[in-house]
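pasting for the record
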Amino acid sequence: MLDVTPLTLGTSGLGRGTEPGSSEEDAAVETAIDLLTSEHGFVDTSNNYAGGRSEAVLGLAIARLGASAGAKVISKVDCDPDSGRFDRDRVLRSFDETTIRLGVERLPLLHLHDPYTVTFEEAMGPNGAVAGLIELRESGRVDAIGVAAAPVPLMARYVETGAFDAVLIHNRFTVVDQSAASVFAEAQKRGMTVFNAAPFGSGILVTGAREGAVYDYRTATEELLTWVARLEAICAAYAVSLPAVALQYSLRSALVDSTVVGVARPGRRAQSDDLIAATIPAAVWEELDAMGPAPSPVDDSRYA
């Protein structure tokens, strides 16, 4: 298993909309420096995050801090943005694009990211994306390979291949939806490192049950808003915040090795540390259990 800390810092929005040499880019680089010098082990990015700007900004931060800072960055290969091609050759090109932006030669972990433009069989085939990842691992250019996506049935198939060292699933292991639990358990049995991303459900577990709140990037249903409002009332009764409960739900789980929390703006990393440090009374977890399952809007049936 990888040597991880409880929190991994995500950078999907880092550098979005910034131009090279701009003051906005400088601010993003300062945020990246804060992430890379924090006590948290890994900073998570991807070839396609913010159109490549996430990796570019991290590269500028690494250049300021020194090459050793690059050892904290893990990334993901993505399909060709124009054609959707996602085979062995595309994986190698995606890796090269990433390392050039970051200014590094190798990575501690590289994920197959959102392999939705190809079938599972194509990805696992002789010239498929996974073959490219294995080639990178065998050459020593990456220490470990993983798979990062969301649909639980699809992720179960990838985990069961035994090809990967790590798995990352988002929006499927939160106080609202625990459908990834079985995949995480299987991954741990295989000695894989488990990353749980999006513990706030992409929004509603930070904003609360307000109009327009989202879960898994979709507008929350009325049933879910009602359920979250009940959870907010429990949090208020014990003087704890909903985001603290949401984050610590993942952190306290034996199924999760590291929880990925997105940080794109100054101060967000410190806010996450405050949520980690918050004391949650045992009664909160007891009342949460007593609420029963949330009406999750997630539907992965088409991947079954």
